[in-house]
Amino acid sequence: MTYTFPKDFLWGGATAANQFEGAYNIDGKGLSVQDVTPQGGIPAKPGDRNPLITEVPTEDNLKLEGIDFYHRYKEDIALFAEMGFKVFRLSIAWSRIFPNGDELEPNEAGLAFYDKVFDELDKYGIEPLVTLSHYETPLHLTRKYNGWASRDLIGFYERYVRTVFTRYKDKVKYWLTFNEVNSVLHAPFMSGGIATPVEELSKQDLYQAVHHELVASALATKVAHEINPDFMVGCMVIAMPAYPMSANPLDQLAVRDFENQNYLFSDIHARGKYPNYIKRFFKENDIEIDFAEGDAELLAEHTVDFISFSYYMSVAQAHNPEAYETGKGNILGGISNPFLEASEWGWQIDPVGLRLVLNDFYDRYQLPLFIVENGLGAKDVLVDGPDGPTVEDDYRIDYLQKHLVQVGEALQDGVELLGYTTWGCIDLVSASTAQLSKRYGFIYVDRNDDGTGTLARYKKKSFNWYKEVIATDGASLYK
Question: Which residues pair with 14 in a beta bridge?
Fold first, then answer.
């Protein structure tokens, strides 16, 4: 059956400042946690519990230059416009606006840069979707305050978001408060700027940090609606459905426990209170969240306008996980599913899981949804084509086509979906591994894992494929 997506559906792509902007020390920008994690934000090698963290930025950190969007934004946005993008997801680097994070006054050069980017997007009629904090906690806030483990960060974050909401109130409509906020449970340094090593970080301190982020998110939502009532503010979580390894009821309980870890964040963002299942978990683990005066009211009264999420894979769960092979390349854990194939990095490919996620979220919250990350990381090979260098990435086209068909099914199920932005619509540095060879984009960037390359941009085969998908409102998916 051929199905067309709604005419106002927001098609586009997604990026993060720390993975593609570069210019890490230009125009007054301060350091972020990304500038001292040259091997990525997850453990450096199997068996480690913490990422490699350096004292100062080192030459082997590809994120310092990224793909130099900072100086090439006009060229890149023109390519996005050529594909027909209706929306472009990007993040604002907090340390570009407040270099240390705790200053009283912002850095005007940083604000001016994003003015130029938003004006360029507007020239082509592309709606910006802005993530306020995308794994980019200012490094000073990590080293002086221990990141979100400290309640002080709520005030610093409020000053930052109030600054950018005010500055861009007529240029940006869609905002996300934190990227993949549930990842803080598994990557506390990258996600929450928490310097305490994982093996020393107590559950009490970790969940108190979670509380600080959730309160800050509600406060940002409050401030946003005060500054511009037309703002749409969403949360952003990792969506990862889980399947039981067997019909054993204990395996289904394991699935529920795993999924509740993720639902916790969207439940509080959308419903405004801590759910009962986490209260039991807190009681059983001697965790007592310190609520400051007004916290409960903030959470209850300033819930989000929509739910956004990343979706790359599903996992399986069991009550005895030691009996099975652990999934690879997965920040949240889980067991390999024998019914699914996997990418080169071990991420299992499950298009139907995306339909399940969409229905689960919509049934649970009855709020609009937004798929803000989905894509396939792969080792692309540049070849000569009739119009110049290109990549014959049929594997990426196949991945995206199958996922988007399932998105169409979810729309027919009655799910309200605002849009879809593919991850890394232009090649960028991987967050998990800090590689450039793990490519997601429709646009190939000539830069290699050793830092060599011209930074030239080339259209992959998927570029024109996605262009046709957008131009036909998804009808071309069914050819």
Answer: 89, 423
Q: What is the pTM of this model?
A: 0.97
Burial (0-12, 13-18, 19+ Cβ within 10 Å), 35 = buried
Instruction: Write out the H or E segment, with its range, that includes residue 354.
Output: helix 351-365
Number of C-alpha atoms within 13 angstroms, CB side, residue 159? 16
378: left (phi over 0), alpha (psi -120 to 50) or beta: beta
Strands 383-385 and 388-390: antiparallel
| Angle of CA points 130, 132, 135, to nearest 5° | 115
Q: Indicate the number of domains in the chain.
A: 1
Residue 223 located in a structural domain: yes
User: Which one of 180, 373, 392, 416 is the catalytic residue?
Assistant: 373
Residue 369: both structure tokens together: 């949804």
Instruction: Specify the CATH number for the domain of residue 293.
Output: 3.20.20.80
> 3 lies in a domain?
no
Token code pair at residue 103 = 């200053």
As a whole number of angstroms, the distance between CA 252 and CA 258 comes to: 10
Other C-beta atoms lying within 10 Å of the C-beta of residue 435: 17
* Residue 71 within any structural domain of the chain: yes
How many residues make up the chain in this entry?
Answer: 479
pLDDT in tens, 171-229: 999 999 999 999 999 999 999 999 999 999 999 999 999 999 999 999 999 999 999 99
Range of the domain at 127: 10-478
Domain assignment of residue 178, yes or no: yes
Which alpha helices (H) appear in 99-202, and where do they start and end? 108-123, 139-145, 152-167, 188-192
Identify whether 127 is a catalytic site residue: no
Which helix (DSSP H) or strand (DSSP E) does residue 308 occupy? strand 306-311
Confidence of residue 44 (pLDDT cuts 50, 70, 90): low
